[in-house]
Design a protein that fits this description.
Elements (H helix, E strand, L loop, with lengths): L25 H11 L12 H12 L2 H4 L3 H16 L7 E9 L2 E9 L3 H11 L3 E2 L4 E2 H5 L6 H9 L10 E3 L51 E2 L2 E2 H23 L2 H11 L3 H5 L33 H19 L1 H15 L12 H5 L5 H12 L5 E9 L8 H16 L9 H4 L10 E2 L17 H10 L14 H4 E2 L11 E8 L5 H17 L13 E6 L3 H32 L7 H7 L2 H24 L6 H31 L6 H28 L7 H37 L2 E2 L2 E5 L11 H14 L2 H21 L9 H4 L6 H11 L5 E7 L6 H7 L11 H9 L2 H4 L8 H8 L8 E10 L4 E9 L9 E2 L14 H12 L12 H4 L3 E4 L4 E10 L6 H22 L2 E5 L3 H4 L5 H24 L2 H25 L5 H27 L4 H22 L1
Helix pairs in contact: 1-2, 2-4, 4-5, 5-7, 8-27, 11-24, 11-25, 12-22, 12-25, 20-22, 20-23, 22-23, 22-25, 23-24, 23-25, 23-40, 23-41, 24-25, 24-38, 24-40, 25-40, 26-41, 27-39, 38-39, 38-40, 39-40, 40-41
Length: 1151
C-alpha cells in the first residue's frame, strides 16, 4: 500500500506492489521522523506525505486518551507507523480486498499479521491507563474494553468513524499459522528503564509502590472451626462446669473424705458458710413465735438507718395522701397542667440528619463544607424495570415502551406549579438533562431507534459506550443502566436501571420545587405504571429522593393506631390483674373490680409522659418519633409494676385482718413499699439520664424525656395514686360499684383467699428453684447462656436496614430489594482536599498521578493502588484527578488548548499593572492562534504556576468536552474546584471515584471506614487536609463509634445501678449481685440479637437501655425483699419470691 486514493469522505490507500521509496522532500522526512521515530531518519518508506499527514490526524484523536503513558503512546505510533510506512510492509500486511476510486485501485480490506511479543507489550503498556473525567479506562475507548492484545487490535482495525479504521483491517490469530512473517519488533514497557517512556503508577501497575496491609487483611484468629474468643468462652465454661462437678462430688461422703485426705481441705467446715452476707444491718431478732410478713413496718428485724428514715418518710407521706386525697390529686393535676404547657411549642423532628447525626459529628462538618463549596449531592429518581418472565429485558417492545415512559416523565408537569423535568434536572454540560438510561445510547430520542437493527446497535454501544454518547455527552457504562447479568454478558441483563438526576441546592425554594416534581411524578405516573398493559410481565419499582422520608412519616401515622390498641389492651389487663376476685357473685365482682383504679394508673402514666414532653418542648427542642412511640410503653411498663406492688401489698395487709383504718393501712403500705419503689425508680432515672451523655440527638433526647417521665411517674405514684388507692379502698369498704361509686349495693362478704399466682409461686415454684441440686442446674444453665451470649456479642451486626422501618406494603420495599440485586455500581465517593494551593508545583506533585515526576506516594497514586484491592478499600473505579486532566489538556500534542495573546492595561489610584490575558481560539480559522504552552514537558518543570495556572484553568473549566478534545473540564469538573483569584490559590477541590457495589449494611459501614482510613493516611503522609465524602457517610459514621458508645452508656447505667442499690440497700454484696444479674440479662439479650440478626444501631441501643431499666425493675424489689427479711438464706429468698415475686410476675406478663 502506498499513496492516498480515497476521497474526502472515503479515505483509502492505493494498492501498490512496488518497493518502498525514499521520501521526496525534507518536510516529509521530518514529519515521518517526528511521528514514527528515529528509525525512519534514513531509508525508504512505503507511504507518501499525504498518508503520513492523515495518519497524524488519525492518531491525534487517541493522544488525549493514551498520551499520559509515554510507552503506550510510543507503541501506538509504532503499531500504526509500521502498518502505514514500514519498508517491510509487504512481509506482514496482505491486501485481501480492493475497490476502485476513479481509475485507481484502492485497498478496502487487509490482514495485519502481528506477533505475540509486540502485541503483548502493546496491550500491557495501555491496559491500565485511566481516562479520569469518566472514571474509566483508556482501553474502553481505544480497544473496546478488550481483555487481551488481539481483542484490542481487532477493535482498532474495525472500520468505523472516529477512533476506528478507514477500512477493515483483520488480525489473523496466533493459531492461524504464519502465512506471512508476523510484525513482532520489541515495543516499550510502561516500566521502561528509559525515563522518557516510563509511565506513572496510575497508568502502570509495575511502577507502583506496595501498600501496607490493613488490619482488615489480617487473618482471623481461629482454633479449629471456632474463633479464638468463642473458643475461650467454651473453654472457660467447661472449666467452671468441671470445678462445680468436683465440688458436688466431694459432698459424697466417701469421695469427700478421700479428697480431704489428699489435699487437706475440710469442706464440711465450710459447707454452711454463706456466700451472701448483708452489710450494715443489725443482728436478727430470734422470735419463732412471731408470724412475720415480708416488709411489715411493724416488724422489721433488720434495721438500716437509711431504710428506717425512708420508711418513716413514706409512712408519713402515705398518711397525708390518704387523709387528704382530693387535695393531693388537685395539686398533682395543677402541676401536670403547668408542666404540660410546653406542648404549645411541641414539634416533631423529621430530618434524619438532625435525628441520627451528632452536631459535633466530623462527617456532618465535612458534609456542610462540601455543600457550601460545591453543590450538594444531586437528587436521584430511580426506576428498576425488571423482566419477570424468562429471558433478557432488552427487546424491541420494552425499549419502545421505555422511550415513551421517559418522554412522558420528561414532559409531565407538577400538580401545583406546573414544573417540568427540565426545570429541576441536573445539567452540567449545557441544557441537556442527565438521564442515565439505556435509551441514552439513542440520545433519548425514539426517532434514532432502528427497530430492525436495534440489537446490533445496543451490542455495539455496551461494548463501546464512547461511540454512543447521550445528549449530555458523558459515556453511559453498561453497569450503570443494566442489571442482572453475569460478567460482561450485558445483552442477557434482566433489568433496565433508569436514573433521572435532579439538581440539589442549599436554597429551600429549589428543594421545594424538586420535591413537588417528585411527588407529582409518583402520584401521576409511577404509582400507576405497573397497571399499564404495555408493562405486562415486567415489574417497575421506583424511588425518589423524598420517598423515604414520606414513607417513614406514613409509617408513623399508621403506628398511632397500634399504640392506641396496645394501650387499651394493657389497660384491660392491668385493671383485671389489680382486682381481687374472691367470689364469683356478680355483685361482689362489681365491687372488687379495679377498673377505676386501673384508669387512674394509666392516666398517671399519660400525665407523666405529657409532663416530660411538655418540659422538653419548653426548651425549644423538637420531639422525636422514638419519644412518641417508645416512652409511653416504657413508662407504662415501669409504672404498672409499682402499681401492682402497692395494690397487692395493700391487699395482703387487708388479709391480715388487723384493726386498721384505711388511712393507716395505706400509710403502712407506702411505708413498706416506698423505699423499694424509690430504689427502682431512682436507678432507672439515673440510668436513662446518663443517656444525655450521648451526642446523637435521637438518643440523647430520648434519654432526657425518659428520665423525666420515669421520675415524674414515681412522684405521681407515691402521691396521687396513693390518694386514688385510698378513695378506692373506701369505695370498696362501703360496697360501692367500681367506676360508678355513687351507686351502693348489697354484696356478700368477701372470702379470704390467696391469689392463684401467689399459691403457684409459694407451693411449687419456690420449693423447686431452692432445691440444692436444682440451684446448681439453674446457675450452670444461666451461666452457660451468659457465656454463649459473650461468645456471640462480638458477632453482633451493625447497621439499620431501611426496609425494617418501612410499612410492609410500601412501594420502597420492592425497590430496595431490586436495588440490592440489580444495581452494579456503588455510590460515588469524593476525596476532598482543603487549603492546598494547587497552583504550586510541589502541591501539584503531591496530588497528580499521571506524570513520572509525581510523588511516589501522591494522592492519585495511592487511590489507584487502593482501587486494586477493592475487597479492602471498597473503591471500584479509577479516580478522576482533575490536576492530571488539566495539565495534560495543556499538552500541545493533544491539540486541545490554543490561545491568542492579548495585552490589557489595568490602572488604579496607586499602581499601574500590566498583564496578559488569554483567549481561546481555533487554529483552523485563526492564523494568530498558537499553542497555549509550547514548552510543555512531562517533567512538569515548565508547567504553569500561580496566576498563569489560574488563567489557563479558567479556559479549561469553561470548555465542554467533545470528540476532538475529551479533556475539556466543564462537564466533569465544573463544580469540583473552588478557586480564589485574589489570593491566587485553590480553596478546595474534590477528586471523584466510585465505591464497589454495596449490598449490605456491613458493606456500607466498611466502605465508610475504609475511605476514612485512606483519607487520614493521605493527610498524614502528604501534609495536606483530605477528607472523604459520600452521601451516606453522615449516617454511617455513627457505626465507627457506636460499639464504644454502647459500652460507655450501658456501663455507666449499670455502674449507677450498683451505687444506688448498694447505698439504699446498705449492702455492697447485694449491689454486686443485682449488677451481675443485669449484666447477664443484657449480654443474653445481645446474644439473641446476634442469633436473630437484629443489628446494633441507635434504635436498638435505645432498646438496650430500656432493657437495663426493666432488668433493674425486676431485681431491685426482690433484692430488697431479701435484705429486710429474716431467717436462713433459703427462707429469705422464698419469702421475697412469694410476697414480691408474684407482683413482679404480673408486671412481666404485661411486658
Amino acid at each position: 500500500m502506498r499513496g492516498d486514493c480515497g476521497g474526502i469522505f472515503s479515505p483509502a490507500n492505493c494498492v501498490y506492489n512496488e518497493p518502498a521509496v525514499q521520501p521526496e522532500t525534507d518536510s516529509f522526512r521530518k514529519l515521518l521522523v517526528d511521528t514514527c521515530g528515529a528509525e525512519y531518519a534514513t531509508g525508504p518508506a512505503c507511504c507518501d506525505e499525504s498518508q503520513i499527514q492523515k495518519l497524524v490526524n488519525q492518531v491525534q484523536m487517541a493522544k488525549p486518551i493514551v498520551a499520559s503513558c509515554p510507552a503506550c503512546w510510543s507503541n501506538f505510533l509504532q503499531f500504526w507507523c509500521a502498518f502505514t510506512c514500514s519498508p517491510n510492509q509487504s512481509t506482514f500486511v496482505n491486501v485481501t480486498g480492493t475497490g476502485t476510486q476513479g481509475d485507481k485501485l484502492t485497498v478496502s480490506q487487509t490482514d495485519y499479521w502481528v506477533g505475540d511479543n509486540f502485541g503483548t507489550q502493546f496491550y500491557d503498556s495501555c491496559k491500565d491507563i485511566k481516562f479520569g473525567s469518566s472514571n474509566g479506562y483508556a482501553m474502553d475507548f481505544i480497544g473496546g474494553g478488550a481483555k487481551d492484545w488481539h481483542g484490542m487490535v481487532t477493535y482498532m482495525g474495525t472500520k468505523r468513524l472516529g477512533l476506528g479504521s478507514p477500512f477493515q483491517i483483520d488480525f489473523p490469530p496466533l493459531d492461524a499459522g504464519d502465512a506471512l512473517t508476523r510484525y513482532d519488533d520489541n515495543g516499550k514497557s510502561c516500566n521502561d528503564s528509559d525515563p522518557a517512556y516510563r509511565c506513572a503508577c496510575v497508568d502502570c501497575e509495575a511502577t507502583c509502590p506496595v501498600l501496607e496491609p490493613t488490619p482488615g487483611e489480617a487473618p482471623e484468629c481461629q482454633v479449629g472451626l471456632l474463633n479464638c474468643w468463642t473458643f475461650a468462652m467454651v473453654t472457660t465454661y467447661g472449666l467452671i462446669v468441671l470445678v462445680v462437678l468436683v465440688l458436688v462430688l466431694t459432698r459424697h461422703h466417701r469421695i469427700g473424705v478421700w479428697l480431704q485426705k489428699c489435699i487437706g481441705y475440710d469442706w464440711i467446715r465450710e459447707e454452711n458458710r454463706g456466700l451472701y452476707e448483708p452489710l450494715a444491718l443489725e443482728e436478727e431478732e430470734d422470735d419463732g413465735s412471731e408470724i412475720e410478713n415480708l416488709l411489715d413496718p411493724d416488724h422489721v428485724p433488720r434495721q438500716y438507718w437509711l431504710n428506717s428514715r425512708l420508711q418513716g418518710w413514706f409512712y408519713r407521706q402515705g398518711l397525708f395522701c390518704a387523709r387528704h386525697p382530693w387535695l393531693v390529686i388537685i395539686l398533682g393535676l395543677c402541676a401536670v397542667s403547668l408542666c404540660s404547657a410546653g406542648w404549645t411549642r411541641f414539634s416533631v423532628e423529621r430530618d434524619p440528619i438532625h435525628l441520627w447525626v451528632s452536631p459535633s459529628s466530623r462527617a456532618l462538618a465535612e458534609k456542610e463544607h462540601f455543600d457550601k463549596n460545591f453543590t450538594p449531592f444531586y437528587r436521584a429518581t430511580q426506576l428498576f424495570i425488571v423482566n419477570e418472565e424468562p429471558g433478557p429485558i432488552a427487546s424491541q417492545d420494552h425499549l419502545k415502551n421505555l422511550f415513551k415512559l421517559e418522554r412522558e416523565i420528561r414532559h409531565m408537569r407538577s400538580n401545583e406549579h406546573g414544573y417540568v423535568f427540565q426545570d429541576v434536572c441536573f445539567h452540567p454540560n449545557g441544557d441537556a438533562c442527565v438521564v442515565q438510561s439505556v435509551t441514552g445510547y439513542w440520545q433519548g430520542d425514539i426517532d434514532n431507534f432502528d427497530p430492525e437493527y436495534w440489537n446490533e446497535d445496543l451490542q455495539n454501544c455496551v461494548e463501546q459506550p464512547s461511540d454512543c454518547l447521550p445528549d449530555f455527552q458523558m459515556p453511559l457504562k453498561p453497569s450503570m443502566i443494566l442489571g442482572g447479568y453475569e460478567g460482561s454478558e450485558f445483552m442477557s441483563a434482566k433489568a433496565f436501571v433508569v436514573t433521572f438526576v435532579l439538581a440539589n441546592s442549599l436554597e429551600t425554594e429549589a428543594v421545594a420545587k424538586a420535591e413537588e416534581w417528585e411527588k407529582s411524578l409518583i402520584h401521576n405516573i409511577l404509582s400507576k405504571v405497573n397497571d399499564r398493559p404495555e408493562w405486562k410481565g415486567v415489574r417497575v419499582t421506583y424511588s425518589t429522593e423524598s420517598s423515604l422520608e414520606t414513607e417513614l412519616n406514613k409509617s408513623s401515622n399508621t403506628d398511632a393506631l397500634t399504640i392506641i390498641i396496645s394501650y387499651l389492651v394493657m389497660f384491660v389487663y392491668a385493671s383485671v390483674s389489680l382486682g381481687r376476685f374472691r367470689s364469683w357473685n356478680l355483685r361482689r365482682l362489681l365491687v372488687d373490680s379495679k377498673f377505676g383504679l386501673g384508669i387512674c394508673g394509666i392516666l398517671i402514666v399519660i400525665f407523666s409522659v405529657s409532663t416530660a414532653v411538655g418540659l422538653f418542648s419548653l426548651t425549644g427542642k423538637k420531639t422525636t418519633l422514638i419519644i412518641a412511640e417508645v416512652i409511653p410503653f416504657l413508662v407504662l411498663a415501669v409504672g404498672v409494676d409499682n402499681i401492682f406492688i402497692l395494690c397487692h401489698e395493700y391487699a395482703r395487709r387487708e388479709d391480715m385482718g388487723e384493726d386498721e383504718s384505711v388511712e393507716e393501712r395505706i400509710a403502712r403500705t407506702l411505708g413498706k413499699m416506698g423505699p423499694s419503689i424509690l430504689l427502682s425508680s431512682l436507678s432507672e432515672t439515673i440510668a436513662f439520664g446518663l443517656g444525655m451523655l450521648v451526642t446523637m440527638p435521637a438518643v440523647s433526647s430520648f434519654a432526657i424525656v425518659a428520665s423525666i417521665a420515669i421520675f415524674v411517674d414515681f412522684i405521681l405514684q407515691v402521691t396521687c395514686f396513693v390518694s386514688c388507692m385510698a378513695l378506692d379502698a373506701k369505695r370498696a369498704d362501703s360496697n360501692r360499684l367500681d367506676c360508678v361509686p355513687c351507686v351502693r349495693i348489697r354484696a356478700p362478704e368477701p372470702l379470704e383467699k390467696e391469689g392463684w399466682l401467689s399459691t403457684l409461686v409459694r407451693v411449687y415454684y419456690v420449693p423447686t428453684i431452692l432445691n440444692r441440686q436444682v440451684r446448681y442446674v439453674i446457675c450452670l444453665l444461666f451461666l452457660g447462656l451468659f457465656m454463649l451470649g459473650l461468645a456471640m456479642v462480638p458477632e453482633l451486626p451493625l447497621g439499620l436496614d431501611q426496609r425494617i422501618a418501612l410499612p410492609s406494603d410500601s412501594y420502597l420495599v420492592p425497590y430496595f430489594n431490586d436495588l440490592d440485586v440489580y444495581l452494579n455500581t456503588g455510590p460515588p465517593v469524593y476525596f476532598v482536599v482543603r487549603n492546598a494551593n494547587m497552583t504550586d508545583r510541589e502541591v501539584q506533585k503531591k496530588i497528580c498521578g499521571r506524570f513520572a515526576a509525581c510523588d511516589p506516594t501522591s494522592m492519585g497514586t495511592i487511590l489507584e493502588q487502593e482501587r486494586k484491592r477493592p475487597k479492602v478499600s471498597y473503591i471500584g473505579e479509577p479516580t478522576s484527578v482533575w490536576v492530571d486532566d488539566f495539565l495534560h489538556w495543556l499538552d500541545p500534542t493533544v491539540g486541545c488548548c490554543h490561545r491568542k495573546e492579548q495585552t490589557s492595561l489595568y490602572f488604579d489610584t496607586l499602581e499601574r499593572e500590566y498583564r496578559r490575558g488569554f483567549e481561546m481560539c481555533d487554529p483552523d480559522f485563526d492564523r494568530k492562534c498558537v499553542d497555549c504552552l509550547p514548552d510543555w514537558s512531562p517533567s512538569m518543570e515548565t508547567l504553569p504556576e500561580g496566576k498563569e495556572f489560574l488563567e489557563f484553568f479558567d479556559m479549561w473549566i469553561d470548555m465542554p468536552p467533545d470528540e476532538n478534545c475529551p479533556l475539556g473540564g466543564k462537564a466533569a469538573y465544573g463544580d469540583a474546584i473552588a478557586v480564589n483569584h485574589e489570593r491566587v490559590t485553590t480553596v478546595t477541590s474534590h477528586f471523584r471515584t466510585f465505591h464497589t457495589p454495596l449490598r449490605t449494611q456491613q458493606d456500607f459501614i466498611a466502605a465508610q471506614a475504609s475511605a476514612r482510613r485512606i483519607s487520614d493516611n493521605l493527610s498524614d503522609s502528604l501534609g495536606i487536609s483530605v477528607y472523604p465524602y459520600s452521601v451516606f457517610y453522615v449516617f454511617f459514621e455513627q457505626y465507627s463509634y457506636i460499639a464504644m458508645m454502647a459500652l460507655e452508656l450501658l456501663g455507666l447505667a449499670i455502674l449507677s445501678i450498683f451505687i444506688i442499690t448498694s447505698t439504699l440497700l446498705g449492702s455492697m454484696r447485694s449491689g454486686i449481685i443485682v449488677m451481675l444479674v443485669v449484666i447477664m440479662i443484657l449480654i443474653d439479650v445481645m446474644g439473641v440479637m446476634t442469633l436473630w440478626g437484629v443489628s446494633l444501631n441507635a434504635v436498638s441501643l435505645v432498646n438496650l437501655v430500656i432493657c437495663v431499666g426493666i432488668s433493674v425493675e425486676f431485681c431491685c424489689h426482690i433484692a430488697r425483699g431479701f435484705m429486710v427479711s429474716s431467717g436462713s438464706r433459703e427462707e429469705r429468698a422464698g419469702k421475697s419470691m412469694v410476697d414480691v415475686g408474684s407482683s413482679v410476675s404480673h408486671f412481666s406478663r404485661l411486658d
